[in-house]
């Protein structure tokens, strides 16, 4: 949430326990529980599918498949709507790193967010392992997609999601932001998920990897989303940002609005 003093600047006064709670702990806890619920919903949908189908060898694991994709989309929309006013609704370490780089999130808060994301994803996935007797499928690249294809898919999908976030979430669009970011995430995820079983959010795959013990080509999910974040940041700064936030400014240029 750009411009919100809770996330962008440290208190000028001597910090108090109350101040630390509202500026650091509370938003970090919101991010933790948001990612926890996302990972739990995604991974538990995989356990449900595994329990319903007969045992047979699978050439490529896909946690949750189409059901998991739909589940994480609806969960994301709901969780973003309830965390956006508390923490900015990052729910993704790539978004947090970008906001730290743009000085839209104070570094201490950003570091706490990153830790909350990793811990929430791991505990969310391990919780599913603890309550089910079925071992959910771990994520892996499809046999007919190469590493380059998977990275490219994660990159383009992540660029769409983060560009929607940067354009809408930082302009106090209210319900428009929730729907715009939610539909952007849904469309991007449905379009590219089949390439790598990724969720355009590396901590979701990280939590699943920890719980399943499968790390084969796990770097795909971090490299692809990081590249997508870079692309989204550049496009936003050059084209899609509001006039006062564009990287290139002209003193004499007054943009003409389309009626």
Distance between the termini: 28 Å
CATH topology: Glycerol uptake facilitator protein
User: Count of helical segments?
Assistant: 9
CATH class: Mainly Alpha
CATH homologous superfamily caption: Glycerol uptake facilitator protein
The Cα radius of gyration reads 19 Å
Class by helix and strand content? Answer: mainly alpha
Helix content: 55-70%
Number of strands: 0
Proportion of β residues?
A: under 5%
Tally of separate domains: 1
Mean pLDDT equals 83
* Second-tier CATH architecture: Up-down Bundle
Order of helices and strands: HHHHHHHHH
Gross morphology is globular
Unreliable stretches covering 5 or more consecutive residues: none
> Main sheet?
none
Membrane topology: Multi-pass membrane protein
Pfam families: MIP
InterPro entries: Aquaporin-like, Aquaporin_transptr, MIP
Keywords: Membrane, Repeat, Transmembrane, Transmembrane helix, Transport
Architecture overview:
The chain has 259 residues and is an all-alpha fold. It has one domain: Glycerol uptake facilitator protein. 66% of the residues lie in helices and 0% in strands. The longest helix has 36 residues, at 17-52. Belongs to the MIP/aquaporin (TC 1.A.8) family.
Highlighted features:
Glycerol uptake facilitator protein; mainly alpha; single chain
Topology:
Elements: H1 5-8, H2 17-52, H3 65-83, H4 93-101, H5 107-131, H6 147-168, H7 175-196, H8 202-212, H9 219-240
GO molecular function: water channel activity
Organism: Paramuricea clavata (Red gorgonian)
Keywords: Membrane, Repeat, Transmembrane, Transmembrane helix, Transport
């Amino acid at each position: 949430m750009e411009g919100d003093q809770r996330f962008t600047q440290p208190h000028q006064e001597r910090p108090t326990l109350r101040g630390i709670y509202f500026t650091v702990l509370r938003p970090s806890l919101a991010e933790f529980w948001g990612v926890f619920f996302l990972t739990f919903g995604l991974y538990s949908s995989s356990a449900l599918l595994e329990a319903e189908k007969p045992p047979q060898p699978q050439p490529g694991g896909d946690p949750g498949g189409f059901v998991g994709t739909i589940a994480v989309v609806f969960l994301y929309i709901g969780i973003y709507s309830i965390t956006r006013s508390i923490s900015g609704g990052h729910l993704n370490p790539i978004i947090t790193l970008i906001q730290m780089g743009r000085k839209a999130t104070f570094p201490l808060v950003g570091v706490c967010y990153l830790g909350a994301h990793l811990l929430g994803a791991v505990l969310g996935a391990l919780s599913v392992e603890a309550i089910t007797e079925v071992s959910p499928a771990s994520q892996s690249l499809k046999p007919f997609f190469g590493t380059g294809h998977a990275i490219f898919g994660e990159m383009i999908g992540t660029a769409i999601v983060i560009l929607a976030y940067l354009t809408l979430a930082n302009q106090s669009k209210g319900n428009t932001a929730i729907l715009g970011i939610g539909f952007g995430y849904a469309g991007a995820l449905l379009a590219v998920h089949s390439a790598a079983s990724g969720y355009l959010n590396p901590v979701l795959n990280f939590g699943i990897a920890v719980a399943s013990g499968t790390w084969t080509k796990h770097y795909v999910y971090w490299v692809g989303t990081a590249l997508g974040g870079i692309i989204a940041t550049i496009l936003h700064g050059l084209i899609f940002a509001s006039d006062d936030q564009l990287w290139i400014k002209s003193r004499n240029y007054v943009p003409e609005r389309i009626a």
